[in-house]
C-alpha cells in the first residue's frame, strides 16, 4: 500500500454510499448467517429458512436487501429460486473477519 499523501483521492458520494451499505449489510446477524451459509453452496429460500431456523418471510426480506447490493444472486429452477453469493471481495472480507474473531 502506498501511503504517499500526494496520491490521496477523495471518495465520491456514490462510492461512500455503497461502501456504507455493504458494511450495513454485514452488520446484521441474520444477513451474516445467510451469507455464511451461501458461502459454501447455493440454497433455496426454504432451505435457508430451515437450516437457520428463520421464517421464510424473514429470509426473503434479507435476500432482497442483499440482492439489491449485488451480494447474492439467484437462478430459477422451475418455481424455485436458488441463491448463492455474488461478490468474492465481500465474501473474502467476511471470511477474514470470521477468522480474525476466531484467532486466539
TrEMBL record:
One of its GO terms (molecular function) is DNA binding. Keywords: DNA-binding, Transcription, Transcription regulation. InterPro entries: ArsR-like_HTH, HTH_ArsR_DNA-bd_dom, Metal_resp_trans_reg, WH-like_DNA-bd_sf, WH_DNA-bd_sf. It comes from the Bacteria. The keyword DNA-binding applies. SMART domains: HTH_ARSR. CDD domains: HTH_ARSR (cd00090). Residues 11-104 form the HTH arsR-type domain. The keyword Transcription regulation applies. It holds the Pfam family HTH_5. Coiled coil: none annotated. NCBIfam families: HTH_metalloreg. PANTHER family: ARSENICAL RESISTANCE OPERON REPRESSOR ARSR-RELATED, HTH-TYPE TRANSCRIPTIONAL REPRESSOR CZRA. This is ArsR family transcriptional regulator. It comes from Cytobacillus horneckiae. The lineage of its organism: Bacteria, Bacillati, Bacillota, Bacilli, Bacillales.
Amino acid at each position: 500500500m502506498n501511503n504517499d499523501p500526494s496520491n490521496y483521492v477523495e471518495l465520491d458520494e456514490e462510492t461512500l454510499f455503497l461502501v456504507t451499505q455493504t458494511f450495513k449489510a454485514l452488520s446484521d446477524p441474520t444477513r451474516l448467517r445467510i451469507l455464511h451459509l451461501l458461502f459454501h453452496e447455493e440454497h433455496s429460500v426454504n432451505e435457508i429458512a430451515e437450516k437457520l431456523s428463520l421464517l421464510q418471510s424473514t429470509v426473503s426480506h434479507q435476500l432482497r436487501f442483499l440482492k439489491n447490493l449485488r451480494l447474492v444472486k439467484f437462478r430459477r429452477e422451475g418455481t424455485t429460486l436458488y441463491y448463492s453469493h455474488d461478490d468474492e471481495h465481500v465474501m473474502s472480507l467476511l471470511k477474514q473477519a470470521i477468522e480474525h474473531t476466531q484467532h486466539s
